[in-house]
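Please produce the structure of this protein holding protoporphyrin IX containing FE.
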Amino acid sequence: MGLFVECLDKPNHPKHFLVIPLVITLIIGFVSMFTILKYYLTNRTGRNNNLLSGTCSSPPVVPGLPLIGNLLQLKDEITHHTFANWAEIYGPIYSIKAGASNIVVLNSTDVAKEAMVTKFSFISKRKQTNAMNKLKNNIIITRDSNEYHKMARRHVVTHMLGAGAQRRHRAHRDIMIDNVVNGLNAHAKENPMDQPVNFRRILQTEIFGLALKQALGVDSVGSSKYIEGLGETLSRDEIFKVLVLDPLSGGAEVDWRDFFPYLRWVPNKSFEMHIGRMEIRRLEVMKTLIEEQQKRISSGQEINCYLDRLMLAEGKTLAKTHLTMLIWETILVGSETIVDTAEFAMYELARNLKYQDHLYREIQKVCGNNKYTEEQFSGVTYLSAVFHETLRRHPPFPVSPLRYVHEDTQLGGYDIPAGTEIAINLYGCNMDKRQWDSPEEWKPDRFLDSKYDPNDLYKTMSFGGGKRVCPGALQGLSITCTAIARCIQDFKWSLKPGREEEDINTATLTSQKLNPLLVIVTPRDY
Ligand code: HEM
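Below is the modeled complex.
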């Protein structure tokens, strides 16, 4: 979640206050005075005194500045790291202020589960940022829990992500994994042995192809495509950018008005134009891709994919814009989360040869000279340990999409009033020292402990929880684990010297390696 990150460096930075009219400056002056007064009164008479007297009913407050609250402390920092550091000082639940927004941050599995499961009915709404509204993100992940959300979630599970649907899409996954391994083999053959390969590039294009096939029936993008509404031919990379990369960075874009809703009426032209342009391009690309397939469906040619099934089930009742959004969401979320996880897993295995060898030996014991396949997953215990440890240490969504308290409730024993936003720091839960031994270390062996149920997909908080838990967990597991197993079975992995350090990019809605993994792959003989 890049919600706060770099907020003051963006074009829509409050420094643009310099150019807004005098009247706004005056309003800000009044608001500041009011906020300063309120801040001092609260600190003198409210929460801190309550804390000291032991009658506290509000979570501890991270001190910030009047008016802007904690925004400056979050600038230039990786938000989920800062949240986890504050948890060490203020405890697993505390509150911060981002401008006018009150946000309660949760950093332990217990309190996160309380919010996601036990108290769900009080916290079932999502917080919509201006960027999300502008991107018309009428998609499952950003919707409040209501009838539309229920209907959309049911369809994506039944037709794409549930166990039955996943079985039907098996052939696509097998082809995709073969293509990844072939890509690595081609690199190894055509280049000197110490020439590193950009693993993300190979994986990303293949997973994008898989997402298109599952959603639309075919990967019709090829190497380029003419987009009629734009009057342009876009390359595959450009289409990936329009459908996946731009919305991920755009959704994380900070509009300062999110933090100062009373100034919502002030125009922020650069932000609106930037997001608006992204939206037009995305809609035009989706229109071309969907209309092509609708022609196929009208000609009586059916394919077992999400679009065909959704058209059959809801085609007459679902507005075209909703249909487009639901199809697009699977391409968006399905493409990046898996790439991020698989890339971090291969990075950790490449720099921890002891764990890589362990995994390789176990794969060989189970598969011998045969290719690893999904059926062998339960036999290779260490693969599951590598997967869960990667998700624990590098959750693709380090902070789950913001939720909104719509009815007064309690969390972790504290009163939480309606109107509060809830940030669940999944990274913080996964790094909680009270739950995990040496949490900063990437150590798959921790999941070999018999206390873990081998079939439990939710050993960490990385898929979220409760009614909004990720419905793509099974697909995430099957693709990531098969990709890891085949990559380790066929190649020895090592890092390009000097690339051992961890680097993280959180300027998008997901957290990924800042620089693509450049890795030396040496084919194994087996
Ligand atoms: C390793 C891979 C993945 C991880 C770690 C992951 C993680 C998450 C997380 C943390 C959430 C938010 C949960 C919450 O709010 O509590 C989420 C929601 C969601 N994910 Fe995933 N995800 C992964 C893969 C996928 C895939 C492959 C798809 C589908 C193509 C998918 C589709 C969704 C959808 C539709 C939601 C919204 C659910 C709702 O709000 O009801 N995810 N995911």
